[in-house]
Amino acid sequence: MKNIKRVSALICVAVLLLLYVITFILALMDSPHTMALFKGCFACTIFVPLAAYIFLRLHNYAMWRSKRSDPYSSSQNISGSGKQDDGQDISR
Question: How far is residue 54 CA from its own chain's centroid?
Answer without folding.
Answer: 6
